[in-house]
Design a protein that fits this description.
309 residues; alpha/beta; UDP-N-acetylmuramoyl-L-alanine:D-glutamate ligase; globular; ten-stranded mixed β-sheet; four-stranded mixed β-sheet
């Protein structure tokens, strides 16, 4: 059956005020070199990445009433469908202030006291429109929707960066594809070794666990493969790492929807994320498919290697 969308998602939707400074964030003080207002949020930016890459994406989380809905209008402008998103007068985007140093590192200060998740009565027909649901840590506010999506056979791609205890554990258990920052995995599990982390996060119900580690690449374990993999990072000069993880998640989810195996999805996502950090802002550097394929075909594209103990 033809699907209306490749990927749907609900989760963080943000408006970011980004300040670029001339010294590393550890310096304590520095001059402002540039100010930018951009739209962000983990899932929202990931869905924009899907659209930029030529996929069909839909945001199905809470949006405000149309007259005040700047986040939803921006998603529509970027090619992300919002027709199935529930509306609420109190819904609003997260507001963030992001400081970016000259090396591309950033610190995000955010106010997330907003309505999260999606409507509890989001119809099953919405889930029937796609093979992949993308969620982030705020899915704890709509666990029942994730349970229904899982029961309906969708692949659940989870981007979790923080924990709310047992509620987060339940969301983690529902994800077929855990695509996590390795810093979160290390903090959550109190372990350090990537291979041990992959093992600790694995379960028979998983299709894949992917741990992203910035300029050290990513680590992948996939169902049916006795080998765990290290995928080195592209060698790039990072201008701004804001949104790189979101880009990775969006590209991974799209490749998954198109039938890719997890290691290949991670390779596609790695190229997309590497390109994204070469421009300012969380969405300005999101690439198109042609750019990703060109990088992947290049002589310096990283090659996966077996992960050793």
């Amino acid at each position: 059956m033809a699907r209306a969308f490749d990927v749907i998602g609900f989760g963080a939707l943000a408006v970011d005020d980004i300040v670029y400074v001339d010294r590393p964030l550890s310096a304590g003080k520095g001059k402002v070199t540039k100010r930018v207002r951009d739209h962000g949020g983990n899932v929202a930016t990931a869905l924009v990445a899907v659209a930029r890459l030529g996929g069909r994406a839909a945001f199905v989380g809470w949006l405000g009433e149309p007259a005040q809905d700047i986040g939803g209008r921006e998603l529509e402008r970027e090619g992300v469908d919002t027709a199935c998103a529930p509306r609420h007068a109190d819904a609003a985007p997260i507001r963030s202030i992001i400081t970016v140093g000259p090396d591309g590192d950033r610190f995000i200060a955010y106010d997330d006291d907003v309505l999260h998740g999606t409507a509890p009565d989001l119809p099953d027909v919405v889930f029937s429109k796609t093979p992949v649901l993308l969620i982030d840590g705020y899915a704890i506010h709509s666990e029942a929707a994730v349970v229904r999506a899982h029961a309906l056979g969708l692949s659940i791609v989870a981007d979790i960066e923080w924990t709310a205890g047992s509620a987060s554990d339940r969301i983690l258990s529902l994800a077929d594809h855990l695509v996590l920052p390795i810093a979160f995995a290390r903090s959550h599990l109190e372990q350090d070794d990537p291979r041990a982390l992959l093992e600790a996060l694995w379960s028979p119900d998983r299709a894949a666990v992917v741990l992203t580690d910035g300029d050290r690449g990513s680590y992948v374990r996939q169902r049916g493969d006795p080998v765990s993999w290290h995928l080195p990072a592209y060698m790039v000069r990072a201008v701004d790492t804001t949104g790189a993880g979101d880009c990775f998640h969006g590209a991974y989810a799209l490749a998954l929807a198109e039938g890719g195996r997890p290691l290949d999805c991670a390779a596609f996502a790695a190229a997309a994320a590497a390109i994204s950090v070469t421009a300012h802002g969380g969405r300005l550097g999101l690439p198109d498919r042609a750019a990703c394929l060109s990088w992947m075909a290049g002589a310096h594209a990283p090659v996966p290697v077996p992960l050793r103990s």
